[in-house]
Amino acid sequence: MNLELTVDEAGYRKALLIKHLISVVDLYDLESHFDADTFGQLRRDVERFLAQPEFQSLRDGHIEEAIEVKPPGIRDLLRNLFGPSRQEINLSKQREALIERAEHAENSAFEALAELAEAARERDEVKARLKELESELNVLKSEV
């Protein structure tokens, strides 16, 4: 792999951005997702490029300068002034209703499972009692 960047401010900013991306990979332990040799070579190439004396005046930059932040749009300004829109409020209400229905369905399912378990227990008791009665009947038939 050969990293080719122009030796100017634009090249420096690109290299700085690559360095920050490498930092994110390090931060979240994602190195295993990359070829170790290629990733290591990229890291060394970027460090070597950024260490050039031509960039001495640019070295004090921060990550905020490398990330472009979009200015707030009209929708964001209106939301800050007037609060959430009618659509957002309706969606929020719908979401709450769906959550309530899901909770109700979950409770109903648990109640049905409890009733089913109770019915199975009662069935087993009836079967056991039936066997007892059959054995008593057999004893009475043999006595007659």
Strand content: under 5%
What does the main sheet amount to?
none
Number of H- or I-type helical stretches: 5
Distance between the termini: 100 Å
| Rg (C-alpha, Å) | 36 Å
Q: What portion of residues is helical?
A: over 70%
**What is the strand tally?**
0
Report mean pLDDT, rounded to a whole number: 85
Secondary-structure element string:
HHHHH
Unreliable stretches covering 5 or more consecutive residues: none
Q: How would you sum up the global shape?
A: elongated
| Helix/strand/pairing category | mainly alpha
A few lines on this structure:
This protein is 73% helix and 0% strand.
Primary descriptors:
144 residues; mainly alpha; 5 helices; elongated
Would you kindly provide a written description of the structure presented here, covering whatever features stand out?
73% of the residues lie in helices and 0% in strands. The protein is mostly helical. The mean pLDDT is 85.
Architecture blueprint of SSEs:
Layout (H helix, E strand, L loop, with lengths): L8 H19 L8 H15 L12 H4 L7 H9 L3 H58 L1
Helix pairs in contact: 1-2
